[in-house]
Amino acid sequence: MPESLKAGDPAPEFELMNQDKKYIKLADFRGKKKVALLFYPMDFSPTCTQEHCTFGPEMTKLSPDGETVIFGINADSPFSHAAYRKQYNIAYDLLSDPTRRMIKAYGMFAGEEPYNCAKRGTVVIDKAGKIAFYQEVPMKEPRKVADLAHAINGS
Predict the structure, then answer these.
(1) How far is residue 155's CA from residue 150's CA, in Å, rounded to a whole number?
(2) CATH number of the domain that 117 lies in?
(3) Which of 63, 61, 69, 60 is closest to 33 using CA atoms?
(4) Secondary structure class of 77 (helix, strand, coil)
(5) How confident is the model at residue 1 (pLDDT cuts 50, 70, 90)?
(6) Are 120 and 39 in contact (CB under 8 A)?
(7) Model pTM?
(8) Local confidence band at 103 (pLDDT 50, 70, 90 cut-offs)
(9) Quick check: 89 pLDDT over 70?
(10) What is the DSSP letter of 10?
(11) DSSP H helix total and E strand total for the chain
């Protein structure tokens, strides 16, 4: 397991499919937008659903200037993401990492047992491609809008 990333570290590159099976590359945002990665364990789980349903209506607080792109990320398939996003009207793209390579590169892999899933955590990447904010959050505790807004806008 890699050491945790910290502010100032280069963000590991990635190219992952979203819920529409469209590839999203971190490099496409360099010099243009900040990127907020919301790692979460599983689609349709109670805590994850609570978070996503809370964050969607608060997008103007999370990215008031429109300068930050927000992605949810876990190891579930694009098909699961599509159903989850549609059912709960999630306002941002969900990225799929079924190989868990990207999740591991960001130090957000919870381990094979019991669920072989991502941890809950937030990573904000600045326009230059460097980590501006990195935080793991307890798996069973939903992130709060105010904390997330501070992480994104204060970094």
Answers:
(1) 8
(2) 3.40.30.10
(3) 69
(4) coil
(5) very low
(6) yes
(7) 0.94
(8) very high
(9) yes
(10) B
(11) 5, 9
Would 3 be classed as within a structural domain? Answer: no
Distances (CA, A) of 133 to 6, 23, 36, 142, 155: 7, 24, 9, 18, 6
CA gap 16, 38 in Å, rounded = 14
Q: What is the DSSP letter of 58?
A: G
pLDDT at res. 37: 98
The residue length of the chain stands at 155
- 85: in domain: yes
What is the 3-class SS of 52-70, one letter each residue? HHHHHHHHHHHCCCCCEEE
Would you name the residues annotated as active-site residues?
48
Flag whether 2 is in a domain.
Answer: no
Alpha-carbon distance of 80 to 28, in angstroms, equals 25
Displacement of CA 133 from its chain's centroid (Å): 12
